[in-house]
Write a structure and sequence with these properties.
single chain, alpha+beta, Double Stranded RNA Binding Domain, Ribosomal Protein S5, domain 2, four-stranded antiparallel sheet, four-stranded mixed sheet, 22% strand, extended
């Protein structure tokens, strides 16, 4: 009887060991599959980045600058957009922005089909409005029109790069003393048509207290907390965007009093 009990115990131990071995083998197989998938994803991301870099290289190799700013950028004599602003050089080539701000994001805020009536009949085309920004103090808006959808978006993106605006960020709210760059430094206002947009600094954590038409502009500009008061026709979305960009553009401008102007004229 005792021998039978021992043999049954040995069988049970053997079955348990086999089950543990099968579980370990299954776990190892799953780990290998997961590692293979992660490696494949990482390799795919790396390959996509390499392709983007090669496409940019080909684009810049075929680019022949026509302005002084373009030549300085292509020859690596200027490596930042702020330096170009300091040199007061006009930026009329979008390739300059592609080279200095490679992380620009695009967003189509409006896309519509337009019709023009001529003697030959109706002529249809597409109008695209594209918003562009790097979420780090630069934002621009462009409009493009063409008979093809993609061409209209491409034209709008090109114009938006040329209309890029520098935004000064800060912490101008009296409730907040973090001295960060999450809001705007002071109150600014912009106007377009019948629409007026007033931007006020907000403390950290408030968020963007704005409407859906203005929110993408502030997000792409890198502003995280702000109060907004608007007035005008709410149906004109494009005017709201233009007014917001006009207000953000004023963050980098300075008002000079008449007395200071007289002093500057005397010194000249």
């Amino acid at each position: 009887m005792r021998e039978k009990e021992l043999s049954e115990e040995e069988k049970a131990i053997k079955v348990t060991e086999e089950a543990i071995e099968r579980a370990q083998a299954l776990q190892e197989k799953r780990e290998k599959e997961t590692a293979a998938k992660e490696t494949g994803k990482a390799g795919k991301v790396v390959r996509e980045e390499i392709r983007e870099e090669e496409a940019k290289k080909r684009q810049f190799e075929g680019w022949t600058p026509k302005t002084l700013a373009g030549r300085l950028v292509k020859n690596n004599e200027v490596s930042s957009l702020d330096k170009l602003y300091d040199m007061n050089l006009p930026i009329i080539e979008p390739e300059i922005l592609d080279a200095l701000l490679p992380g620009l994001e695009e967003k189509v805020v409006d896309f519509s089909k337009t019709t023009k009536v001529t003697k030959a009949g109706r002529s249809f085309s597409f109008r695209a409005i594209v918003l562009i920004g790097d979420k780090n103090g630069h934002v621009g808006l462009g409009t493009g029109k063409d008979k093809e959808r993609w061409s209209a978006v491409k034209k709008a993106s090109r114009e938006a790069k040329l209309n890029l605006v520098k935004v000064r960020r800060g912490c101008g709210a009296w409730e907040c003393v973090c001295s960060g760059n999450h809001s705007i430094p002071f109150k600014v206002s912009g106007k377009e048509g019948s629409v007026t947009v007033n931007l006020l600094p907000a403390p950290k954590g408030i968020g963007l207290r704005v409407g859906n038409a203005i929110k993408p502009v502030l997000e792409l500009a890198g502003v995280k907390d702000v109060w907004v008061y608007t007035s005008g026709n709410s149906k004109t979305t494009l005017n709201f965007i233009h007014a917001t960009i006009n207000a953000l553009d004023k963050t980098t401008k300075m008002r000079v009093s008449d007395e200071i102007k007289k002093l500057i004229e005397r010194s000249d």
